[in-house]
Amino acid sequence: MREVVIVDGCRTAVGRRKGMFADYRSDELAAIVLDELVNRSNVEKSAVDDVILGCVTQVKEQGGNVARTAALIAEFPSHVPGVTIDRQCGSSQQAVHFGAQAIAAGDMDIIIAGGVENMTRAPMFSNMKGTEPSEKLTATYDIVNQGISAEKIASEWNLTREELDAFSYNSHQRALTAIEKGHFEEEIVLVETSDENGRLEMADIDEGPRADTTPEALAELQPVFQEGGKITAGNASQMSDGASAVLLMSREKAEELGLRPKARIIARTVVGSDPTLMLTGPIEATRQVLKKAKLTIDQIDRFEVNEAFAPVPLAWLQETGADSDKLNVNGGAIALGHPLGATGTKLLVSLVNELERSDSQYGLLAICEGMGMANATVIEKW
């Protein structure tokens, strides 16, 4: 099997729902990232074997295979194909896995894997059009809202409201510090937008982090999903808009083109988990991917575990015994946002850059997914 490397990666800043990308078509937003990615690496668009994008809500401009339309908008030659996949919140991470598998098997040499989601223009669940789960499904499983799943996790792992809010506050503080130190500047692609008065602006900073967030303000928020519950808008991820992608190659192809990769993919896995608890998959996915990588949890220098809801990474910490100081060191989705289909490669890009910045060796990315699944990836800095 051939070695798969990450040559480069980039993303847009993440916009709040109804924020800076509210009027930006998803396919055009993704096209900006695709164009920038090959330009940064000085790779000919014609050399790309496939464009694989994750997208969860495939309606409107996110429908009709947005990977293909985005590539054409970005002026990739017509012979470069594209495919769009949905593994819920891990869609673009799965795009990386599929791309890596094709390269490792020798089917392809150069693949762009990424994702896009504009939750303003294609609201969550709008692709379901009010459809209810099959009675044959609900006869076997208790299918609930993800917020209820988060409540169940908080109860099962004995997590208090205070712990959830403290984690959320810390996410904002870490994100604000990262922005102040310029940690995201290299990975963010500048996108030209306009304000409410029509004046041109450059979208270059994530909109989600709130400098005015305080523990007291978080404590005042009311539960959203369950009366007397613990999950609020403050300890859940933000609905967001954005796009991201990474450039994958075989090591041989990178050497042939004279490119120095940023990282190599060491191991990858995907698991199914309890569809009612739904969000616990990263725990088992972490165990499996570490086994495949032949590494222990203590050998990993940085973790990115998606903050869909605060109980997810907190339960993961309890079960894995990982060092919390290595987890989401630049903030997570509670502060920075969660543009569903784009989140996987957004986090991967940030993880690669964090390994470089901290001169660390190994990073692990894990994302929980709707209906009970999770992807996990281990990378090594080049």
From TrEMBL:
Annotated ranges, domain Thiolase C-terminal: 260-381
| UniProt keyword list | Acyltransferase, Transferase
Instruction: Enumerate the CDD domains for this protein.
Output: thiolase
Residue ranges of domain Thiolase N-terminal in the record: 4-252
Name the protein family: Belongs to the thiolase-like superfamily. Thiolase family.
Q: What is this protein called?
A: Thiolase family protein
Q: Which organism is it from?
A: Lentibacillus juripiscarius
